[in-house]
Design goal:
- The complex is a heterodimer.
- Chain A contains 12 helices and no strands.
- The radius of gyration of chain A is 20 Å and the shape is elongated.
- By secondary structure, chain A is an all-alpha fold.
- Chain A has one domain.
- By secondary structure, chain B is an alpha/beta fold.
- Chain B folds into 2 domains: 221 residues, P-loop containing nucleotide triphosphate hydrolases (Rossmann fold), CATH 3.40.50; 67 residues, 2-Layer Sandwich (Alpha-Beta Plaits), CATH 3.30.70.
- Helices cover 35% and strands 26% of the residues of chain B.
- Chain B is built from 11 helices and 14 strands.
- In chain B, a hairpin with a 2-residue loop joins strand 1 and strand 2.
- The chains are: A mainly alpha, B alpha/beta.
- Chains A and B meet through helix 1 and helix 4 of A and helix 3 of B.
- The structure holds adenosine-5'-triphosphate (ATP) and magnesium ion.
- Magnesium ion (MG) binds next to helix 1 of chain B.
- Chain A: Keywords: Antibiotic resistance, Cell membrane, Membrane, Transmembrane, Transmembrane helix, Transport.
- Chain A: InterPro entries: ABC2_TM (IPR013525), ABC2_TM_bact-type (IPR047817), ABC_2_transport (IPR000412), Nod_factor_ABC_transporter (IPR051784).
- Chain A: It is found in: Cell membrane; Membrane.
Chain lengths: 272, 314
């Protein structure tokens, strides 16, 4: 045991404790193989459900295969599930007293939120890998080569990490795992209200405005462009969809700038 | 005598309109067990949370081993263990997984954390359940794991907030044994409880708190002595109840309680009365007693007397 005295020592322990907490999430996954199976099946079900059910009725703007059009939307959807997962885990810790135990220990304080968001990143990578596998099986593929493809995945990861901090903050704010669980379905309208599954052109004006500015839409549009999938851009579109990559980066930076300080403050203050 | 290891002076804490602590003072000598008793809402948990650096007092200060709980929270955290009112372990991890994780977070090396986890599981009889997730533990096992999680670093001061609430008598006895072992090793324990026999069994000193203030302190025996012994009388003939009540009232100076027909019970003044005198007085009045006995009050009686809510409406 080492005292957290020098700034450098503190940084080192923040990192070490963060890693321990990432390890904790992995330990939890190992105890719950059901969760892994669900995580494996969920994206596959989505691909089949949306790809073949909606695909039979929806015309892709500018032509092309609907499942090729759909995959970037599903990637965006899975990316957005990040804040929900982090929120429920943080709220569970806060309501069960685990957070109190962390806070009564001589550990690096910042390690807890950083560990939790770091763990989510690993979960996210795993889910992306599964989705890529399923996507390839149903005929999706990136068409523009390695670098744009890597850029697309990098964008997803950046936005995912930013969103996981929203989850930390909301989880600390609700502090109750039942409330948090009840909030999970609220995630669905967020992702549906976008260009992930259907083009926004057909929506009524106000709805279209919301959908165009939704970061889900920006991420979907950016990945369509970078993967070279159909529906990338059609004629006159709103600014965020005309500059999707910039929009995703701006969203990520804004979310991080707002929610990291808010979450850290909430974490320090909980129960004070 | 060295300085007390836990000191609280004039602690105040409010939550909105609720004044949870109103000038709480506490002092626990090293190596002893201090039992904090109080009715629901008295402020026990609030006090423990402040002492364990989870919450800041609005006024007053507290020190653990000479370190201020607000300004030197880091040093305090290296010396304390806290088992809160609700078991604070990760439900999804195994018992061993929890201990290893917390060991690492206490900055033990991986090897030391793993070794310590096994040592503790062995010593506190949880080895058989070590590789099961906590969600499958019984309430008693969960509390025990929660307790031993606090012991990873062998803390100088251990805070236990109602460590045995909701446990069956056997599990309670096991937790008590564990606490006794720790104290034998030199740990100072501050324990809140609703069970007075628990305080009686474990505590060297007791602080009774109500409405956020300490209203009485002392050893269990001292506290019992403050309300005097109790006299129980069983009459041969229930018809003499009124006469007997008058006699006892004169002797004790308070109205006796008549528990059921032919039974009386009264608190004697702390100065004490001899049993022989009492029997003689009853005889004089023509009351035949089937049984007369003097006994020490239980801590429950002391507690009920001290925290009588009639005069202080909330
Ligand atoms: N976080 C909080 N927010 C609002 N009120 C609180 C909070 N924590 C405690 N209180 C109030 O402060 C008072 C003291 O509570 P505390 O939990 O310290 O009591 P306690 O003695 O531990 O009771 P119990 O025996 O029921 O555990 C209560 O009236 C309670 O409602
Ligand atoms: Mg309490």
């Amino acid at each position: 045991m080492t005292a957290l005295t020098s700034p450098l020592g503190r940084l080192r322990w923040t990192f070490a404790d963060g890693l321990t907490l990432v390890g904790r999430e992995l330990g939890r996954l190992r105890q719950e193989p059901g969760q892994i199976v669900a995580a494996l099946i969920f994206p596959a079900v989505m691909v089949v459900l949306f790809g073949y059910v909606f695909g039979s009725a929806i015309q892709v703007p500018g032509g092309g295969d609907y499942r090729e059009y759909l995959m970037p939307g599903l990637f965006a959807m899975v990316t957005f599930s990040a804040w929900l997962g982090v929120m429920t885990r943080v709220a569970a810790d806060a309501s069960r007293g685990v957070m109190d135990r962390f806070r009564s220990m001589p550990m690096a304080r910042l390690a807890v939120p950083f560990g939790q968001t770091g763990a989510d990143l690993l979960t996210g990578l795993l889910m992306l890998a599964i989705m890529v596998g399923t996507g390839l099986l149903v005929g999706w593929q990136p068409h523009r080569g390695l670098v744009p493809t890597a850029q697309a995945f990098l964008l997803m990861i950046v936005l995912r990490y930013a969103l996981s901090w929203v989850g930390v903050y909301v989880g600390l704010a609700v502090k109750n795992d039942q409330v948090a669980d009840a909030m999970v379905p609220l995630g669905l309208p967020f992702t549906m209200l976008s260009n992930a599954f259907v083009p926004t052109d057909g929506m009524p004006g106000w709805l279209r405005f919301l959908a165009d500015w939704n970061p889900v839409s920006a991420l979907t549009a950016a990945s369509r462009e970078l993967f070279g999938n159909p529906g990338a851009r059609s004629g006159d579109v709103a600014w965020p969809l005309a500059h999707p990559v910039t929009t995703v980066l701006l969203w990520s930076a804004a979310l991080l700038a707002v929610f990291i300080p808010l979450s850290l403050r909430a974490y320090m203050r909980t129960g004070r | 005598m060295t300085d007390p290891i836990v000191v609280a002076e004039g602690l105040h804490k409010s939550f909105g309109d609720t004044h949870a602590l109103r000038g709480l003072d506490l002092s626990v000598p090293a190596g002893t067990v201090c039992g904090v008793l109080g009715p629901n809402g008295a402020g026990k948990t609030t006090a423990v949370r402040i002492l364990a650096t989870l919450s800041d007092p609005d006024a007053g200060h507290a020190r653990i081993a000479g370190h201020d709980v607000v300004r030197e929270a880091g040093q305090v955290r290296e010396r304390i263990g806290l088992a809160g009112q609700y078991a604070a372990v990760d439900e999804k991890l195994t018992g061993r997984g929890n201990l290893r994780m917390f060991g690492r977070l206490y900055h033990l090396s991986r090897r030391a954390a793993y070794r310590r986890a096994d040592e503790l599981l062995e010593r506190f009889g949880l080895m058989d359940a070590a590789d099961r997730p906590i969600s499958g533990y019984s309430g008693g096992m969960r509390r025990r794991l929660d307790l031993i999680t606090c012991l990873i670093l062998r803390p100088e001061v251990l805070f236990l907030d109602e460590p045995t609430t909701g446990l069956d008598p056997r599990s309670r006895g096991e937790i008590w044994d564990s606490i006794r072992e720790l104290v034998a090793d030199g740990t100072t324990v501050l324990l809140t409880t609703q069970y007075l026999d628990e305080a009686d069994q474990l505590a060297d000193d007791i602080a009774v708190i109500d409405h956020g203030k300490v209203i009485a302190t002392g050893t269990p025996d001292e506290l019992k002595a403050t309300i005097g012994d109790r006299l129980d009388v069983v009459l041969q003939d229930p018809a003499t109840l009124a006469t007997a009540a008058t006699v006892l009232n004169t002797l004790a100076g308070t109205e006796p309680a008549t528990t059921d027909a032919g039974r009386l019970s009264v608190a004697l003044p702390a100065t004490g009365l001899r049993l022989a005198d009492i029997v003689r007085e009853l005889d004089h009045a023509g009351v035949a007693a089937a049984d007369v006995s003097l006994r020490r009050p239980t801590l429950d009686e002391v507690f009920l007397r001290l925290t009588d809510r009639k005069e202080t409406a909330r």
